[in-house]
Amino acid sequence: MTKKALSLNIGFTLILMFFSISASFAQAPTPVQDFGVDPRAHTTRKSFWTEFNLGGSLSSDRRWQYQVDYQYRRAADASYIQGGSHGNIFKESYQQVFRPWVHYWLVPGAVRLSLSPIGYWITWTPSAETALYPNKDGETTGQSVFPEFRICPQITTTHNIGRAQFIQRYRYEFRFLGERRAADNNLSDFSKGYNFDATDVGNQSAALGWYGNNQVGRLKIQTRFQIPLTNSKIVEKTLYVNAWNELFLATGSRVKNDKILNQNRFVAMLGYRFKGEIPIKVEGGITYQTLFQYNMDAPPTNPDVTYRKANVENNTAFTIYVICDEFHKLFRKKTNEVKE
Fold first, then answer.
1. What does the alpha-carbon distance between residue 256 and residue 316 come to, in Å, rounded to a whole number?
2. β-strand 41-43 against 311-324: which pairing, if any?
3. Which residues contact 120 (CB under 8 A, 6 or more apart)?
4. Which residues are CB-contacts of 99 (< 8 A; sequence separation ≥ 6)?
5. Residue 2 binned pLDDT confidence (cut-offs 50, 70, 90)
6. Long-range contacts of 105-113 (CB under 8 A, 24+ apart)
7. Are strands 214-228 and 41-43 parallel, antiparallel or unpaired?
């Protein structure tokens, strides 16, 4: 067997293994918790995540680059919602993200410095879980919504090992979280919740008039492995594997001790770069998210079960990325055609 065929077989085997593992977690029923056996109550949720990543060069030597992200996510009901829609990953809105970046290659191909000067998040809480996420309007049914702004410095290192790339990324987020308001599920949601006042740990309670607004930090550490399967490099008409793990750690004096370990994400994607002057890649796969919630005594629709605020979500997101590396060239070509 040739090296190329062997790499292809290994890649497909890894992707199938990741899909199988993720699917088995996603389908596991919520147990009646025995805290003598396991100190954490594990639940699941399925969702659908997409990201459109548009980037390109700002300088002729390609050391300065730009990037714009748009993310759109929807989610099903959690496994602890009795009679819920557990398999409909498009059931309701979960999140949208708009975020620009500026990158500079300190060492071309090896060390890159990045800054997102401002990014915008809008998040909707699940409609069946309003009791867990009360809003300032006092609505007890339907979704709540809140905005968030983030400022993100970042450093990325890249190491080439044969045909594979080993990538380490360190990102810090300055997070400004808005307060939850009752959602209308239309464009008016984008105008709600613009109270970003910092809230001390002792005042973080709805009984004291707190609905999630805060100013906190978060460190994200990502380890990524990327390998082409059908060519020695990711060039035109190349199939490749892109997999990574990312740990999230909350920071700051306004973060409770049990909220420092925020979440972990493991992602396995199979990608393809299309033929053309403009590099366009599409990746599809699974995101397996462990979310350390620690916020629920009893499920909203099942008061006979207790989780003692030791609940951890093991979530599966079916994920699609669309990546365009020299996005501005699309418009440059059209401009030249008009001049001709």
1. 26
2. parallel
3. 97, 98, 99, 147, 148, 149
4. 68, 69, 71, 116, 119, 120, 150, 152
5. low
6. 105/62, 105/63, 105/65, 108/61, 108/62, 108/63, 109/158, 110/157, 110/158, 110/159, 111/155, 111/156, 111/157, 111/158, 112/155, 112/156, 112/157, 112/158, 113/153, 113/154, 113/155
7. unpaired
Give the pairing type, strands 111-124 and 164-177. Answer: unpaired
CB 94 within 8 A of CB 267: no
By the 8 A CB rule, do 48 and 87 touch? no
* Percentage of the residues of the chain whose pLDDT score is greater than 90: 77
Average pLDDT for 149-166: 97
Amino acid at 112: R
Alpha-carbon distance 57 to 335, whole Å?
18
Tokens encoding 219: 């460190």
Q: List, as one string, the DSSP characters of 141-168.
A: SS-EEEEEEEEEEEEEEEEEETTEEEEE
Each residue's pLDDT tens digit, 33-89: 667 678 888 899 999 999 999 999 999 999 999 999 999 999 999 999 988 999 999
- CA 126: distance to chain centroid? 17
CA 89 to chain centre: 15
Residues 6+ apart with CB under 8 A from 32: 305
Task: State CA 118 to chain mean position distance.
Answer: 17
Per residue in 215-238, pLDDT (tens digit) is 999 999 999 999 999 999 999 999
Whether the CB-CB separation of 154 and 170 falls below 8 Å is answered with: yes
Question: How far is residue 236's CA from residue 252's CA, in Å, rounded to a whole number?
Answer: 45
User: Largest Cα–Cα distance in the chain?
Assistant: 76
For the stretch 249-268, pLDDT in tens is: 999 999 999 999 999 999 99
Quick one: tokens of 252? 């700051």
Contacts of 60 (CB under 8 A, 6+ apart): none
